[in-house]
Write a structure and sequence with these properties.
This protein is mainly β and about 140 residues long. The chain has 1 helix and 8 strands. A hairpin with a 2-residue loop joins strand 3 and strand 4.
Length: about 140
């Protein structure tokens, strides 16, 4: 694609637009603030499915209002890999509460189904699929 100045528009510059066009949630997605965000601190375990199923564990170590941080552990080919994560909690236009996480270049968009359940999708360069987590 060419810009008006004759140069090529970077595909990376178009990445946020691709998320909007395809309907995929990205960490850049805007969530409305919620007056009292749910407390997500603790350990969550589950799976990241799709073309390969990976057991995952999320440990929310800190939550300051709508900002969360902690660690995510994947089991890939029998080996544990640990990654720092950060994210935010907020509401979509329909009022549902979501958690958007950035985990070392991987994006997770998780709906708060209950105080014990998160469900959504995870995306990395080589993997995309459903995520289901239960509070431990």
């Amino acid at each position: 694609m060419r810009s008006r100045t004759g140069g090529f528009v970077s595909v990376l510059a178009m990445a946020p637009l691709l998320g909007i066009v395809t309907g995929c949630a990205t960490v850049e997605e805007t969530l409305a603030p919620v007056p009292t965000p749910p407390n997500l601190v603790g350990k969550w375990k589950g799976e990241w499915g799709g073309n390969m199923v990976h057991p995952i564990e999320v440990v929310v170590e800190d939550q300051q209002g709508q900002k969360v941080s902690g660690t995510m552990v994947f089991v890939v080919h029998g080996s544990f890999t640990y990654h720092r994560m950060r994210g935010s909690v907020g509401a979509k236009q329909d009022g549902s509460i979501w958690v958007l996480l950035d985990v070392g270049g991987r994006d997770f968009s998780l709906k708060v189904v209950s105080d014990k359940r998160l469900e959504g999708t995870g995306r990395s360069t080589g993997h995309y699929g459903p995520v289901s987590l239960s509070r431990q």
